[in-house]
Amino acid sequence: GIQVEQSPPDLILQEGANSTLRCNFSDSVNNLQWFHQNPWGQLINLFYIPSGTKQNGRLSATTVATERYSLLYISSSQTTDSGVYFCAVVMSGNKLVFGAGTILRVKS
Amino acid sequence: EPEVTQTPSHQVTQMGQEVILRCVPISNHLYFYWYRQILGQKVEFLVSFYNNEISEKSEIFDDQFSVERPDGSNFTLKIRSTKLEDSAMYFCASSDLLIPRTGGNTEAFFGQGTRLTVV
To answer: CA of A90, closest CA in chain B: separation in Å?
Structure first.
């Protein structure tokens, strides 16, 4: 099956810093989503981005489908950005295959 | 904004007992899913459901599990005889299209999860 790899596995930032999270996938996909899992365990949709670039406030994402990767950019990080960031790709049948996540800690 | 809702948020059950986890998907969505996340691990697909039948299921989804859409709004996951290793966060999700045949949006939206603890 498809492999979804995220890097780095852990990241500690000082408040205000910028960061880039990466998601590599091993096969062509129909869809890619980024999620933020908050400390209460909720999965919050960040981006639905099969290709191209999208921005939402301090967050933006770029997917280069032909090269099988996606990047999530966090600018001016805040403590509320802490949590786990997952990318997930969709194969046929619409099931999402998740990566292992990046654990982000933003320190004040 | 429409959202997927799950109940209960937390359930503790004794090993061997049956549990039913409930979900109300987004109202105009047609495709429903259950995922689970064992503590500290990645989110794993369990089952997808469309047109009142299972579309796909993973190897995790064995005979102990079943899904049902008992009415026009609810979607349930039943575990017949819980085991310790069933302890996990269970997420329901929904989307409005399968693969985008006409350029539609297949984005999946997740509920807040039910944390199941089997003791």
So the answer is: 9
pLDDT tens digits, one per residue of B19-63: 999 999 998 888 999 999 999 899 999 999 988 999 999 999 999
Strands A52-56 and B109-110: unpaired
Total CB pairs under 8 A between chain A and B: 64
Across the interface, of B37, B48, B113, the residue whose CB is closest to A94 is B48
Check the CA dihedral A61-A66-A67-A68 and report its sign.
positive
- Whole-number Å distance between alpha carbons of B78 and A94: 22
Q: How far apart are CA A4 and CA A6, in angstroms?
A: 7
**CB B25, CB B32: distance < 8 Å:** yes
- Residues B46, B114 contacting (CB under 8 angstroms): no
Q: In what order do the strands lie in the sheet with A69-74?
A: A4-7, A19-25, A69-74, A59-64, A52-56
**Structure confidence by residue, pLDDT tens digits, A32-49:** 999 999 988 999 999 999
B107 interface with A at CB cutoff 8 Å: yes
